[in-house]
TrEMBL record:
Functional summary from the UniProt entry: In eubacteria ppGpp (guanosine 3'-diphosphate 5'-diphosphate) is a mediator of the stringent response that coordinates a variety of cellular activities in response to changes in nutritional abundance.
Domain HD: 45-144
NCBIfam families: spoT_relA
The TGS domain, residue ranges: 386-447
GO molecular function annotation: GTP diphosphokinase activity; guanosine-3',5'-bis(diphosphate) 3'-diphosphatase activity
Alphabetical UniProt keywords: Hydrolase
Transmembrane segments: none
UniProt domain ACT: residue ranges: 629-704
Annotated CDD domains: ACT_RelA-SpoT, HDc, NT_Rel-Spo_like, TGS_RSH
Protein name: Guanosine-3',5'-bis(Diphosphate) 3'-pyrophosphohydrolase
Annotated source species: Sulfurimicrobium lacus
């Protein structure tokens, strides 16, 4: 049976006895769940979650995080459910376990720099509670400490992933000790030969330089004491991977890396940091350009210190960090320091606020007194508030702005994918194209060769790329449709002048284009289609510019409306004409041809301007559904809406929109429907069916 003494001893130094009882119960549940499971090393599997919990206890995390660490593999690897954990240990513990499980499912596939950066951001963004990331880092740390039992190929893969993903996250969160250990362990397995050679060289150098180090240490301590500055001075050795990285980046041999040794000076407050800096600069000369003030300008993760490099004895450069005790606490423990380091009961210190401004939720709790458990409630991670990270079907990660929809994703993949999108699967389930994406979503766009962008997409896309491509497509489409409509309107006007459109050759057109410098034939036709030019005016110009034959034998003819013309022909929303209605065409400048019903009250005041009206008629074979509005007055009884909807469906009509007047306590209510029908006969069939419902008192079609 694994030994829990170390965990219990550590926890008893800072947790309440009732919390320790809960942790012991979580251990029993985990041990039972993992019974019979073994690790690759041959140990009982429970030894792993126990080790992770012990690491977290050393970082003094709260009881919920310790319980989640003990249970972090039970949902994935055993029959225990998240619901059972929630009932036994509370929703927060279940949420932490669930968060760690989600991160475990994500596989890092590419070694490209941008992919690694996005992967790190996505891991951080997916973990809504910072403790999820800390548990994951402790889990990775223990796995790295026990990597010997894995096969060489797996050691390599896990080590590269640790160097690219997890060590930088530990650094981002300010967990310096974890960051250094992860890097050194990963270096050891990723480059075993280089690790062996370098560690031997460092050991040899340590012996050679011991005299220099002790001499410098004594000199620093003496100088600070003479200046009456209370300080703790320690010599520190750079960790192996940082030496290796320096050799790689600067192309140095090991003998050229001088700052293997550094010194840390810890004083009581900020003022003493600068006093210590001044006294050390008078002891050894500073190297120009090697001074950094991270107290005045802290690093992104809140790290604060003064860094300076000095010419030591025998001309050896020595690196010195000067920081206060509070800065040291935060530098070593990072995010975890929030609940293990409190400056009295007045709340969170100013230092800690500066440290974690990037943890957005701290802004609300500047001056309030909270215990550690309450504090945790407020540290939800939103490190990248403006971005979401999603997967393509091939596992590539894409960064999109917050609020981006499936349409934005489609255009981010490729313009053609956006233009041809008809549906989307999010996490393998069908969803509307307007669905907003969340971190970690797996998104697959379904396309069709006949599909075109929908103007309604412009209402909810979040990216400029999607918006500009949709507009460009619609503008091009509108232009092409306007050219076609303009051609039909011009033909109609020529026939009205008793001219055969086929007799208008290239000559009259060339003369007309010369008079309209810079215009093409298509542009003039598009202007007619958009109502910017009158068809009858252009027709007269063409007739006057050339020899044309008469078309007296041919009927004048109206423009036929099929309903599939696109944006160049629009159906007025005031009267919603449908095939079978007597109709008129009204040329609206810039919008093209608008079709109204003959008796639409909205157009009464336009009737006096005959130049704007066009004769139109329905094509006998329209293959499209048209919107029509109807109004029903019904008895206010339960189930009446369901009856109405069922009757409409039975008549092969679709409901596009429905609304009702607000309840006023009367026995009757008014319903408004927008239906899709093929023609007037179809609408009559729908209305006949609705009249047969006992609760329907009155029914009418709405116009104007």
């Amino acid at each position: 049976m694994p030994n829990t003494t170390q965990l219990t001893d550590t926890l008893s130094s800072y947790l309440k006895p009732e919390d320790i009882v809960q942790v012991e119960e979580a251990f029993r549940v985990a041990e039972t769940a993992h019974h019979g499971q073994m690790r690759k090393s041959g140990e009982a599997y429970i030894s792993h979650p126990l080790a992770v919990a012990t690491i977290l206890a050393e970082w003094r995390l709260d009881a919920q995080a310790i319980m989640a660490a003990l249970l972090h593999d039970v949902v994935e690897d055993t029959p225990t459910t998240s619901q059972e954990i929630s009932e036994k240990f509370g929703k927060q513990v279940a949420d932490l376990v669930d968060g760690v499980s989600k991160l475990d499912k994500i596989e890092f596939q590419s070694e490209a720099h941008a992919q690694a950066e996005n992967f790190r951001k996505m891991l951080l963004a997916m973990a809504r509670d910072v403790r999820v990331i800390i548990i994951k880092l402790a889990d990775r740390l223990h796995n790295m400490r026990t990597l010997e039992s894995m096969q060489a190929a797996k050691q390599q893969r896990i080590s590269h992933e640790t160097l690219e993903i997890y060590a930088p996250i530990a650094n981002r969160l300010g967990l310096n000790n974890v960051y250094r250990e992860l890097e050194d362990l990963a270096f050891r397995f990723a480059h075993p030969n280089r690790y062996t050679v370098l560690s031997k060289a460092v050991k040899a150098a340590r012996g050679n330089r011991r005299e220099v180090v002790s001499k410098v240490l004594e000199a620093i301590e003496l100088k600070l004491a003479n200046c009456h500055i209370e300080a703790t001075v320690t010599g520190r050795e750079k960790h192996l991977y940082s030496i290796y990285r320096k050799m790689q980046e600067k192309n140095l041999a090991f003998s050229e890396v001088f700052d293997i040794y550094g010194f840390r000076v810890t004083v009581k407050d900020v003022q003493n940091c600068y006093l210590a800096l001044g006294s050390l600069h008078s002891l050894y000369k500073p190297i120009p350009g090697k001074f950094k003030d991270y107290i005045a300008i802290p690093k992104a993760n809140g790290y604060q210190s003064l860094h300076t490099t000095l010419f030591g004895p025998f001309g050896t450069p020595i690196e010195i960090q000067i920081r206060s005790q509070e800065m040291h606490q935060i530098a070593e423990a990072g995010v975890a320091s929030h609940w293990l380091y409190k400056s009295g009961e007045s709340g969170i210190s100013e230092m800690q606020q500066k440290t974690h401004q990037w943890l957005q939720s701290l802004l609300e709790i500047q001056n309030e007194s909270r215990d550690a458990a309450e504090f945790l409630e407020h540290i939800k991670v939103d490190l990248f508030p403006d971005e979401v990270y999603v997967f393509t079907p091939k596992g590539k990660i894409m960064a999109l702005p917050r609020g981006a929809t499936a349409v934005d994703f489609a255009y981010a993949v490729h313009t053609d994918v956006g233009n041809r999108a008809v549906a989307v699967k999010i996490n393998h389930e069908h969803a509307p194209l307007r669905t907003e994406l969340n971190n970690g979503d797996h998104v697959e766009i379904i396309t069709a060769s006949h599909a075109n962008p929908n103007p309604a997409w412009l209402n909810y896309v979040a990216t400029g790329k999607a918006r500009s491509h949709i507009r460009h497509f619609l503008k091009t489409l509108h232009y092409e449709e306007s050219v076609a409509l303009g051609g039909r309107l011009l033909e109609q006007a020529l026939r009205a002048l008793k001219v055969d459109p086929a007799s208008i050759g290239a000559g009259p057109w060339e003369k007309l284009l010369r008079e309209n410098a810079g215009k093409t034939k298509d542009e003039i036709l598009a202007d007619i289609g958009l109502g910017k030019r009158l068809n009858i005016v252009v027709a007269r110009q063409l007739v006057s510019l050339g020899d044309v034959s008469s078309a007296e034998q041919r009927p004048q003819g109206a423009i036929t409306i099929r309903g599939t013309e696109g944006m160049a022909v629009q159906f007025a929303s005031c009267c919603r004409p449908i095939p079978g209605d007597p109709i008129l065409g009204f040329i609206n400048k810039g919008k093209g041809l608008i079709i109204h019903t003959h008796d639409c009250p909205t157009i009464a005041h336009y009737r006096s301007d005959p130049d704007k009206w066009v004769d139109v008629e329905w094509d006998p074979d329209t293959r499209k559904l048209f919107d029509v509005s109807i109004k029903l007055v019904v008895a206010n009884q339960r189930g009446v809406l369901a009856k109405v909807a069922a009757t409409i469906a039975d008549a092969d009509s679709n409901i596009d929109n429905v609304s009702m007047e607000e309840e006023d306590g009367s026995a009757y209510t008014t319903m408004y429907f927008t239906l899709q029908v093929e023609n007037r006969m179809h609408l009559a069939r729908v209305m006949r069916g609705l009249r047969q419902i006992a609760e329907v008192v009155r029914i009418s079609r709405m116009k104007g």
